[in-house]
Structure formats: C-alpha cells, structure tokens
Write a structure and sequence with these properties.
This protein has 377 residues and is α+β, with helices and mostly antiparallel strands. It is 18% helix and 24% strand. The strands form four sheets. It has a six-stranded antiparallel β-barrel with strand order 12-15-14-13-16-17. Strand 8 and strand 9 form a beta hairpin. Helix 1 crosses helix 5. About 18% of the residues have low confidence.
Length: 377
Amino acid sequence: RAFVMLARGVSLASRRVLRIAGEEVIPFLQRILTNDVRSLADAGAAPVYAALQNAQGRVRHDLFLHREFGGALLADLPADGFKDALDALVKLKLRSPVTLDDAGEELRVVVAGGERSDRRDPTADGSAEWVPPVDAESMDDDILSFLQPDPRWHGLGLRGVIPAAAAADLLPAGATPDEAEAAYAQWRYTLGVAEGSDELGGLLPLECNLAGLNAISFDKGCYIGQELTARTHHTGVVRKRIVPALFARRSQWIAKDSAGVGGRASTPQEKWSGHEVPTVKAGDTRGTHDEHQKPRARPGMDVFLDGAPTTGKPVGKVIAARGDVGLILLRIEHLAKADSAEDLALVAHGNEERCHVDARVNIPDWWDDTWLQSSLR
C-alpha cells in the first residue's frame, strides 16, 4: 500500500506553507539563504531548495521555495520548526517591504514518488521535461500535474503546494494520514535523504549532504553562516555524513554468501542485497515487522563498530528511524576504509538493557564519487 500512496501523492503534515511576498522578496531571501534564489523572479520558475543557517554555519531549517501565480513565493517549511523559522524571518527582514503570511490552513505540501516519479525526467542539460502520466486520461483532471520535479534530485519524484481540499482527496480509502507520512519517510530514508528540523537541525550543511542535494550555491555571495560552509567546501574534507541505514536485531540478519548491503531497497520491506529482513505478516498493519521482532532503533542512539566496546568513542549517531530503516550520521572514514559497504558492521546502542540493534549502511546512487576518499585526507 505504501507504493500506492506514493504514486497517488502524499500530503505531508510534517511541512507547513508560508507565503512570502513583496517587491523585495528576492533580494531579502538571496542575502539570508544558502542557495541562489534569483531564478524565482521569473514566471514558471522551477522550485528552489535551500537552508536557513545560524551564524555558526549550522542548519536551522530547510525549505523549498515555489513561485505562486502573481509572483509571491510559497515556502515549504518544517511544521515543527515553523514558528522558529517565522520568528527568524521577521527579525531578518527588518524594514524590507516583505510580507510573511501563514498559509498552512489554506495550502498543503504534496509529494509523489514510486511508480509516478518518472513522470518528469531530467534532460541532458539538467532542466525538467514533461512526461505524461501513465494512468490519467486527461492532464486537466490530474491533481498531481501541478507538481514539479523535486529540486534536490530527480529520483525523489515530484513535489509542490496545492489547495488543502485537493490534498485531502489523495488519501486512499482506509489509509490514515500517519500511514501516508510514514510511507514517504521510509522511502526517503532508503534513498539516504534527511529532511526537516528534527533530522537536519544543528548539523553542518555538508554533513547533511545538502551540496549534493542542490541546496547550496558556492558562488552567490554572502549569506548567514556562509563563512564556515564555504571554508569546509573548499578544503574538501567532510568527516561525517548522513547515510541510509537498515536496522535489525542480530538474529534477524540472514547473511548470504555473495554480495553485500551495497544495493538499495526500493521499499523497507524489500531486501538489501546481502541481507534480508523479516517479512510483514498478512493483515499486519502495525508496521514493517511483528511487534516482537521490530527493531528498536531510535534517534539519538550512539552507533559503534560491531565488536567495539560501547564505552568507547561512537562512530556515528542515529538521527532518524522508522521500523527497519533510518538515517545515521556516520564518520565515513570507516566506510571509505572498508572493502565494500557489507564489510562495515555497526551496532546502535541505547542505555536501556538489551537495547542493541544491528545496522548496515548503504552508499546512495546520487552521492558524489569523491566524498568517501576525501574523508581520508
């Protein structure tokens, strides 16, 4: 059912929309965000992904900017950080002729992936090309025709902002909003993409792989926190990065003689090459596993090399987890030194008794080939 929801489109309660308007809106955002937003001055512009940093160069919030008919910009912001982001923008705009209006009750953020994610494909020059949907008789009747390719990476499908009433119609019969949100989060985790203040907040943008996800311009000029971000980029050394993770209790791993964890599962229920996870029981709607088998990885758990004492220095930290998939902020020198991803056995450790969860990581397809080796400098 997760694929069905992703194909139909998922309305994200974890995001909230802010309308930013005024004659100085582009210059205002240009001087505070990590990315170049000048393209949004043109009608029909593609969305832009960016981050708002603090003065120390750490991520405060991520945001997607969509141009609305009439010239206003719709900022797709984390719902849990919406008030903090709004307060920050109010302070930063000073006397600029810019208005900030909460549009969260009027509009919803919608994403579509899975089988429908190829509706728009990147052309050779990196721009977006329209590909008609395979299951709609008329484009005018298709709500998702208003969405555009996700600006981070074409493999993330479509993303946009639509009226709240239309977004409510996307939920399949019998499904709950929480199920839809979980389907998107788990799919995103298998691709190794963090999103929102809970997952990105307080981290360095290059640790979050935001440069590889088209959120940073290194030639746009100054913005808040720019000095540390630019210096780190130009040294070419990033010690830690967010990686996709698969969790299981030790007894659940089924090792195979060949291959390893290097392959990526397209859904949490499918195999990662080299290991497989327990299948969902028929009629079980509680999650990926039976409750007694479900891994208990949680954000904040320290990650250690398998066999290393948990009293030593951790090599990473779990930053997100749902069921058997999640994200780990990992010191990637260990991944770079391993012969392949399957050779890097990890364990997530909690303070509670018997709270040890095995973890395997994966190198996403969209990663820059130089990232691993540069970590060894």
